[in-house]
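Protein in question quoted in full.
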Amino acid sequence: MRNRNVLNMRKALPCMSWSPKNLYNLWKRTAGPQASELTFKHTTQATLFQQRWKSKAAVRAYHGDYIPEKSFKRWYLPDNIPDVRPKRRVLNDDKLDLEEFAKRKVKERIREEKLEEEIEEKGMAPVGSLMFSEVERRIDTVVFRACFTHSIYEARRLVIHGYVKLNGKKHMNANTRLAPGDMVSVDPRAIRFLRERAPPPPPPPPPAKEGEENENSEASESVKAEETNEVIKPTKPSSKNALTPCHIPDYASPWLFVPAYLEVSYATCSAVYVRHPTARPGYSEIPTPYDADGALIRYAWEWYVQRRPRARSQSKINKAPEDRVLSLLKDVHPDKRMKFLGPELRLLEPPVVNLESASQAS
């Protein structure tokens, strides 16, 4: 975690937490007095670099601030960062057949006009937010998105301390990225809002007068003597039909939602990662406190596009966090496996040797 005091009401940015201080920080940065700091206009004194830096800092404070920046750029950025706006196709200069080129140019212009009309009606899908899809696959993020913990930091602590199971087995690596179909279970005894609250302390007795002090002291001594001679009886176990206590913290309602790519069962305290998050026109399945198609996400996207890591070598791939998709692909036949792996991930594949050609060469 980069900043120890993540809920500082003066400097901190919104993060994944149900704390009232975080809710106040979110209001202050989006609709409060400091909303202008993250609202970018065409005419401003800030440079383009400063606007991208502020956008990157605000977005990363919510999406995995506990992940170091170097690790985030190396392992948690998708291989192909989606473009926030589609690029227009540039036609090659066909000098041999000018008539065919003219026809294609007219068709291309008609297609662009239809595309612009469709964009105005439906809007473009906010694909810029999909650059955080790898962070949403983390097991600690899934535990928090399923509303089992008060913050992402508590979800990370539960995973590390062994209170979370992955597909029925204890899993203590919080950096694991899930595959579609994985089930995450949390120990109900570790969920804070499912515990019974302690009874409030009794109110202090009223001050006694001078004449009543002796009588109260004698009465308290007699009560203590009776308690020492009294036999403690075992309490009866609660009935099976008793309801499970549930005490949601105050000001937590804005954070109580479940994304569409999760299937949660609160009766068993488990969640299934159904599929990877997607985006469609006007809607993004990745929860974010900012506009998924706004200038802030676009500037953050531009920042990471210019600073993408180099091609991963074999030594760096061996140090990568656990990815359940790759571990499941190892059980697939090599001929089918190559269709799913990218060019960088194919370095994991061992070389295939043809025994017939090797015997003929010898």
Observations:
- The CA atoms of residues 330 and 337 lie 8 Å apart.
- The domain at 64-84+125-195+246-285+308-314 is CATH 3.10.290.10 (Structural Genomics Hypothetical 15.5 Kd Protein In mrcA-pckA Intergenic Region; Chain A).
- The beta strands are 164-166, 169-170, 183-186, 262-265, 270-273, 279-280, 283-284.
- The mean pLDDT is 76.
